[in-house]
Automatic annotation (TrEMBL):
This is 4-carboxymuconolactone decarboxylase family protein. It comes from the Eukaryota. Gene3D superfamilies: AhpD-like. It comes from Talaromyces pinophilus.
Length: 193
């Protein structure tokens, strides 16, 4: 970690900071504060906004949990964010994705499926379209018309906004994790399943 984690017993300066900390702890539930939280809490108000935004992305979209977690895990792979992968790959499996198929998220690209990896047998056409979109958003930022049109064939406007917000949010998360070397694994090999 490039900055020290705040202590487990997070020091708060006033009632406002105490309320912010309580909201973050409540969202984390029995998991307690993650190393990510303990890095963010150096700036309590940034941590509060992060908690609200990511809480909405995680729990208030109409996306199926498998799709959300596929997108989050793909961003983790592309950005070499091991901490993010380790946290979300189990959630993807818990949502119903086969654990022995996690390797599919390590494909070079989702624009043209590879039968060698059985990508097109493990993922639906709608999931492949969303993953191709995630790839372009993450690697190029600008998304080609062909990739966007493919996405529109499978998702309505609300879903497209939520897919875009999920990919964007987890690019933010992974970049924060990797830049500050949260959990001391930044920039290594691609996350393993």
């Amino acid at each position: 970690m490039r900055v020290p984690y705040v202590p487990e017993d997070v020091p708060v300066q006033n009632k406002t900071e105490s309320e912010i900390l309580a909201r973050i702890v409540e969202r984390r539930g029995s998991h307690g504060l993650l190393p990510l939280d303990r890095a963010l809490l150096h700036s309590v108000f940034v941590a509060d906004g992060w908690n609200t935004f990511l809480g909405s992305i995680r729990t208030k979209t109409s996306l199926h949990p498998i799709l959300s977690e596929l997108l989050i895990c793909r961003v983790a792979v592309l950005n070499k964010a091991s901490f993010e992968w380790d946290h979300h790959a189990p959630l993807l499996v818990e949502a119903g994705f086969p654990s022995d198929a996690l390797y599919v998220l390590k494909a070079d690209s989702f624009e043209n499926t590879s039968s060698e990896l059985q990508v097109d047998q493990l993922l639906s056409p709608s999931q492949l379209a969303a993953l191709a979109y995630a790839d372009q958003m993450t690697l190029s930022v600008k998304v080609g018309d062909d990739v966007f049109e493919r996405l529109k064939q499978h998702y309505n406007t609300r879903e497209i906004v939520e897919i875009t917000a999920t990919i964007s949010a987890y690019n933010c998360v992974s970049r924060f994790l990797v830049a500050l070397d949260v959990d001391e694994r930044a920039g290594g090999e691609n996350p393993e399943n």
